[in-house]
Amino acid sequence: MRFDESFQLPLQHRVIFSAALLHPTNGVLRDVLAGSGSRRAIAFIDAGVEKANPQGARALQSWFSAQASAGHTLPDLCSVDIVSGGEAAKNDSVIVDQVIAATERHAIDRRSYVIAIGGGAMLDAVGLGTTLAHRGVRLVRIPTTTLAMDDAAMGVKNGINRFGKKNYVGAFAVPWAVLCDETYLTTLDSRDFRAGFSEAVKIACLRDPALLAQIERDAARIAARDIRTSMPTIVRCAQLHLEHITRGGDPFELREARPLDFGHWSAHKLESMTGFTLPHGEAVAIGIALDCAYARHVGLLAQGEAARVSACLRALHLPTWHPLLDDIDALLLGLEEFREHLGGRLTITQLTAIGSPMDVHEMDVDAIRAAVRSLAP
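Now predict its structure.
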């Protein structure tokens, strides 16, 4: 006998942009946590966030206390732990194990909450621990970087690096909520602030030519960290990522194509080649420039379009070159790793014009070499 039943889950992906999230009168987090029957919550804060905001842990505790004093019924905040941030957070299982241990220690059940405040890598690691405990505890992501707000926190992926490979171990899970507080962006250093806009250029190239034009117009002010100018781009980028996940028909990447990873096959490999010292956003900028140069060399993309994308990245003070690109043999291993990560055929998204992507299943090695040479300073 055989039974084949198709079914869908009633999932909801909530993303809210706000400011001063932990001000006592801001009710966004309260509304997310209230009314669920939960008894407890635990929180993890990126060490980089705590360093830039030395009262971050205390502010979260004070917010919970203020809500209780105002008569609001919320889960008890049982602990606030500081964990490492940056890509180092994903290079071992320390944070994953720490999260799982904390859920057991504080009797966190599936209706309880894990609150994660930090950059994309830290959110990935905490998210994996949250996904594994009880097969899934409610995760509230509070991203604190441009890259986390406009890309990483919008995804339904959680993971860590293993064997020198990006995101080798992980799981899919939809967060309970993603709360983006623009106030955190004011504490970033300039390099981290700018790095996240590579993902905005990426999604604009794929989905929204008007957004790319807007980024080009605003590039100088974005690079100068003008928040009022930058936020519309961040919000639009987040919206486009969210729409792809919720409406694109493949949120858990069951098929071969992964269009939102345009520019990422080489970016992921460059990150591992540098021992993960090259920030993800900068690696993506280089990867986008390389794929545009490749598309130009094989006749898919007009020379002016490729040059336009690279010029936009440079106007944002993002790199389009790294010396390790010269190690072509090592770089090309990224193609097989990319194929292996999804299975099936190699599938790489390329551009035929701004706003017009296509999937290719073969990459010409000579054209990749030519593209690398064309990017060299």
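The beta strands are 15-18, 40-46, 76-83, 113-118, 138-143, 157-162, 165-172, 177-181, 348-353, 356-360.
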